[in-house]
Specification:
DUF6824 domain-containing protein, three-stranded mixed β-sheet, 3 domains, 13 helices, mainly alpha, 3 strands
């Protein structure tokens, strides 16, 4: 009677088979090759499957199937290769599956001219870039826009000049008083004038401080953490540049 060892891989279902030490090691081997497999061409995928199979057999592992309640070794190459490739495919995360579905849906819309590349949202652009980076063998005739990542945005914010003690002394509570969604240009001009005169502004342009996609209307409440997150320095710097052509000293 054949007894599975810690190196053997058992076919079948159930917790006992799933938790068998050889199957656990088999899944660990697959985890190491999954990213490469997901990016590979069909020919490369076949080679990765062979490597995964060889990793089991190199340590003396056998491929076991249960027939009539008894474990038996199988040498069916097609069956073994399918088990290996299925394990690698099953590693697709929910996000990757979602990206794949949305990527090809967008490609079809772009091809049929139902949408222009310039009309894609930031999320759609990021999804396309992420998918193409993970699948270098997939090519798109449509451009992938460059959207600055968090590091670039942070670097840009750091380049805004220091605004001086007048700005530092403005209480956040005063800056967060106003909840009306006014015209952006008017608020920018007003805010810059308040700052230049040394007065405490009675409101801030929430539609500038907040990310446009997060902006939900006039009743939006901002905490001090929110204010820091959206970097008031960037907003006031933009106001200065737009209306006064430089930084007030």
């Amino acid at each position: 009677m054949m007894v599975p060892t810690a190196s053997d891989v058992c076919f079948g279902w159930g917790a006992k088979t799933y938790n068998h030490e050889g199957n656990v090691r088999f899944r660990a081997d697959a985890d190491l090759s999954r990213d490469e497999y997901l990016r590979a061409s069909m020919a490369q995928k076949a080679n990765i499957v062979k490597q995964l199979r060889a990793s089991v057999e190199y340590r003396g592992g056998r491929w076991l199937v249960k027939e009539g309640g008894v474990w038996q070794e199988t040498h069916d190459a097609a069956k073994i290769n399918e088990k290996c490739s299925q394990l690698l495919r099953d590693g697709l995360t929910r996000e990757e599956k979602k990206d794949k579905r949305h990527f090809y849906k967008l490609e079809k819309a772009l091809k049929n001219e139902k949408i222009d590349p310039s009309e894609l949202t930031v999320d759609q652009q990021n999804m396309r870039r992420r998918f193409l980076e993970r699948h270098p063998n997939v090519h798109s005739p449509f451009p992938v826009a460059t959207v600055p990542g968090p590091q670039v945005v942070e670097q840009q914010a750091e380049e805004v000049p220091y605004l001086g003690p007048e700005f530092d002394s403005i209480p956040l509570s005063k800056m967060l008083d106003h909840k009306e969604d006014s015209v952006r240009e008017v608020e920018l001009a007003e805010a810059a004038q308040y700052w230049l005169s040394g007065s405490s502004p009675t409101h801030v342009p929430l539609n500038v401080i907040q990310d446009p996609e997060r902006y939900s209307g006039g009743d939006t409440e901002l905490t001090e953490d929110d204010a820091e997150q959206f970097q008031l320095n960037v907003w006031i710097g933009e106001a200065q540049q737009q209306y006064f052509g430089g930084t007030h000293v």
